[in-house]
Amino acid sequence: MLSMAKEMFEKIDVDGSGSITADELALLSRKQGKPLAGASLEKVMKELDTDGSGEVDFKEFSEWWPKYCARLTSSRNRSGFDGILGELAGEVAEEQSKGDRKSFNAQLYKIIKFFDGKDASELQAEFKELDADGSGELDVDEVTALVQKVFGGDVSAEVVQACFEQMDEDKSGEIDFDEFCSFFGVKNE
Predict the structure, then answer these.
(1) Fewer CB within 10 Å of terminal CB in the chain, N or C?
(2) Are 7 and 30 in contact (CB under 8 A)?
(3) Cα–Cα distance for residue pair 177/144, rounded to 1 Å
(4) What's the pTM value of the predicted model, to 2 decimals?
(5) Which residues pair with 57 in a beta bridge?
(6) Which residue, among 57, 87, 82, has the nearest Cα to 69 in the 3D structure?
(7) What was the pLDDT predicted at 88?
(8) Rounded mean pLDDT of 68-93?
């Protein structure tokens, strides 16, 4: 059971720092299609981060893991985060057989961190700069420009496509400003 916890921990720790941050949990939840933010994200961090450091190390995670496993046997006590982790657990074995998934996740994380701390007005300026055709929406080519800006050059089509799919919440084939803000965890008011 501890080996599964280790695999899960490493999968969530996309930057390979040896600890899990709230940003990494938010990325995981977005990738699973169940975004965690605000009070929900704080609640999950509080449960995991028992020493209050702002990060979850493997010791904390491994102490929490048996509690999580016990909750899975009782639907009455499950939290939304339990469902997110449950889906992730199902993917761990499958993704282990697919190339360098950790590197891919780290690239997605880098894109999200690029805009860390920016508010909606700052994101609006970035969005307008990326919206080369002035349509008010971003297409795949414009998202490619964003990814290239973050990495300072060429990136794989897989990373661009994953970013585009994560941003395009309504699956319209275009990214509007609200979707852009949502991807970066910023509420557009």
Answers:
(1) C
(2) no
(3) 16
(4) 0.50
(5) 19
(6) 82
(7) 54
(8) 50
